[in-house]
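User: My collaborator sent over this chain with a note saying "see what the structure looks like." That's all I know about it. Can you take a look?
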Amino acid sequence: MDTTQDILFERWETLKDQVRKHWSKLTDDELAQLSGRTEDLASVLRKHYGYGKAQAEIEISIWLQNLDERTKMPC
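Assistant: Without extra context I'll predict from the sequence alone. Here is the result:
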């Protein structure tokens, strides 16, 4: 399991609402079924946004990186 998968899986309950805000085409039912699995999220993004497999994974990684940067506390 790579770092992206670890972050999504471990923090899914807290990230779910932010995922919905960022990718607004996802339904509540889809989010409930995902359970933080990167492959499943990528599949749903492909369906709704027309991404290829690699692009969906890149979009998830970029979103997580940006999320981490926004939530870092200043020293």
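A starting point for your reply to your collaborator: The chain has one domain: 3-69.
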